[in-house]
Amino acid sequence: MDDDNAYAGEFDHGGLEAELREAAAILDPVPAELRLLAVEAYALHDLDAKIAELTFDSLVDAIPVRGAVDVPRMLTFHTGGLTVDVEVTPRGIMGQLLPPQPASIEVLDGPRAGAALTADDMGRFTTEARPTGPFALRLRAGGEVVVTEWLRA
Question: Are strands 50-57 and 124-127 parallel, antiparallel or unpaired?
Answer without folding.
Answer: unpaired
